[in-house]
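Page 42, continued from yesterday. The earlier attempt failed because a stray header line got pasted into the input along with the sequence. Redoing it now with the clean sequence only.
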Amino acid sequence: MITSSLRVVSDASEIDSPDLLPLLDILFMLIVFFLLTANSVQQVLELDLPTEGSDQATSIMDEQPIMLHLFSGNERWNIGDQTFDRWIDVEQFLQNAYQQDNNQRVIIVSDRNAPMERMLQVLAFLKRENRTAAQILMKPKTDRVTNNE
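This time it went through. Structure tokens are written below.
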């Protein structure tokens, strides 16, 4: 039973009235809880998918992009299974790839500790070749340090 700590004194008798403020606080908390946990109405767009012509669909990722790996430490680059020790060899390889397929994509995979000069060197080359976009992947930071590279 909820009792009031304040006592109201009247002429006729003493009347104890319950304090309703804690009850109101709990009711407001319950209302907020129910509003937050209630499922909201989700917007759904009905779409009828075609059943014919699936044999004519082609994959979007048919071409293989050039993966250019930048390593930390000594100067070396890696494209596929080929390792290059000189930047001029990398440029020649990329120019030959662009001559074969002008829409060839380049993905730059860089070691976290690779010098920024190498990344800028690659980006400057792509700018000279009038390439407007390149994807850049960074290796995530690992907890343990390895000296294999």
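Notes: Strands lie at 8-9, 14-15, 66-70, 77-79, 82-84, 106-110, 135-138.
Reminder to self: strip header lines before submitting.
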